[in-house]
């Protein structure tokens, strides 16, 4: 498995970036946000991720290892496909994404075309679990859903519930979250 490639950038089109190395042309899917400012005919270092999607090996290239690592976590979240992952990476830079995932800001994920409420929650939950080892217990998930139905914003609930004591009952947890949200 290759970590990265250093080669001459010969072409960028809508979907692919093309690199030439030793008279062999390699093509990679890419994040548009990742390649801003690079020019054709320049030598670049591209971090590689190869993923099996629908019985086909697809190659993705990234200018920095952090974006590649984010991609690899996102692509492994169930029901999240390559187009959705690339849209996420196209929409925000690395630091913004880390902040979004850390704070559970589903509103920013929902701004991305084609991502609905369920998918946004799945992404936030998956990324918090992978990056910060935060996973909502069934109790916390139940309180989150209940408060969302009452009209509270997911990001506000997440900020409070993620740090709440798991030993609280559902009623105690609900009261705690409501009190903390109203203090903010």
Automatic annotation (TrEMBL):
Compartments reported by the entry: Cytoplasm
InterPro entries noted in UniProt: Hlx-hairpin-Hlx_DNA-bd_motif (IPR003583), NA-bd_OB-fold (IPR012340), RuvA (IPR000085), RuvA_2-like (IPR010994)
Domain of life: Bacteria
Region of interest: Domain III: 137-184
Keywords on record: ATP-binding, Cytoplasm, DNA damage, DNA recombination, DNA repair, DNA-binding, Helicase, Hydrolase, Nucleotide-binding
HAMAP family recorded: DNA_HJ_migration_RuvA (MF_00031)
Record-stated family: Belongs to the RuvA family.
Subunit architecture: Homotetramer. Forms an RuvA(8)-RuvB(12)-Holliday junction (HJ) complex. HJ DNA is sandwiched between 2 RuvA tetramers; dsDNA enters through RuvA and exits via RuvB. An RuvB hexamer assembles on each DNA strand where it exits the tetramer. Each RuvB hexamer is contacted by two RuvA subunits (via domain III) on 2 adjacent RuvB subunits; this complex drives branch migration. In the full resolvosome a probable DNA-RuvA(4)-RuvB(12)-RuvC(2) complex forms which resolves the HJ.
Job of this protein: The RuvA-RuvB-RuvC complex processes Holliday junction (HJ) DNA during genetic recombination and DNA repair, while the RuvA-RuvB complex plays an important role in the rescue of blocked DNA replication forks via replication fork reversal (RFR). RuvA specifically binds to HJ cruciform DNA, conferring on it an open structure. The RuvB hexamer acts as an ATP-dependent pump, pulling dsDNA into and through the RuvAB complex. HJ branch migration allows RuvC to scan DNA until it finds its consensus sequence, where it cleaves and resolves the cruciform DNA.
Official protein name in the record: Holliday junction branch migration complex subunit RuvA
Top-level taxonomy: Bacteria, Bacillati, Mycoplasmatota, Mollicutes, Mycoplasmataceae
Gene that this sequence comes from: ruvA
């Amino acid at each position: 498995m290759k970590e990265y490639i250093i080669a001459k950038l010969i072409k960028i089109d809508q979907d692919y970036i093309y690199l030439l190395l030793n008279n062999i042309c390699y093509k990679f899917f890419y994040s548009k946000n990742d390649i801003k400012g690079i020019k054709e005919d320049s030598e670049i270092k591209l971090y590689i991720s190869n993923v099996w999607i629908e019985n086909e090996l697809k190659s993705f290239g990234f200018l920095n290892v952090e974006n590649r690592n984010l991609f690899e976590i996102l692509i492994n979240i169930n029901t999240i496909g390559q187009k959705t992952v690339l849209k996420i990476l196209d929409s925000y830079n690395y630091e913004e994404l880390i902040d979004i995932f850390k704070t559970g800001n589903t509103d920013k994920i929902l701004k991305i075309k084609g991502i609905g409420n369920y998918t946004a929650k799945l992404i936030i939950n998956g990324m918090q679990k992978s990056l910060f080892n935060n996973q909502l217990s069934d109790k916390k998930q139940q309180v989150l859903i209940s408060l969302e139905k009452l009209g509270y914003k997911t990001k506000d609930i997440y900020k409070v519930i993620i740090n709440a004591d798991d030993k609280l009952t559902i009623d105690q947890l609900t009261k705690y979250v409501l009190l903390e949200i109203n203090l903010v």
